Amino acid sequence: MSLQTEVMTAMKAAMKAKDQNALASLRAIKSAILTAQTESGASGELTQEEEVKMLQKLVKQRKDSAAIYQEQGRDEMAQEELAQAEVIEQFLPEQMSEEEIEKVVASIIEKTGASGMQDMGKVMGLASQELAGRADGKTISGIVKKKLG
């Protein structure tokens, strides 16, 4: 089932349940899909990789907004953003644990012969490709810094 079909099905369920938070999240996904399809041109279909990147971007936006709201002492708004991020994350592939990410990063460091922070770009590039959709860039970056530093 395509992402668009899954989102539409979930939207119907959210409408019936009168779940405004889920509905807002799902509408954001639908809007992002339509925008991406328009930008992609004639085919109008998104690859799974493009869908995952789009969903990750939406989750990151929600989490960044929540962090800003928390800094400003607006906890209610922050909770709303985090709840929306949770709804969007349901459509992402299973995320890897930190231990699994560490193993992958360690093998990349071993393969490339990286020895210090000067090799971070090379390691991050390979790690980002290999872990695309299954790990957050910030988490990958933190682990790479820890291993190389």
UniProtKB/TrEMBL annotation:
Gene3D superfamilies the record matches? 1.10.10.410, Uncharacterised protein YqeY/AIM41 PF09424, N-terminal domain
Pfam families linked: YqeY
Task: Determine the domain of life of the protein's source.
Answer: Bacteria
Recorded protein name is: GatB/YqeY domain-containing protein
Q: Which organism is it from?
A: Leeuwenhoekiella parthenopeia
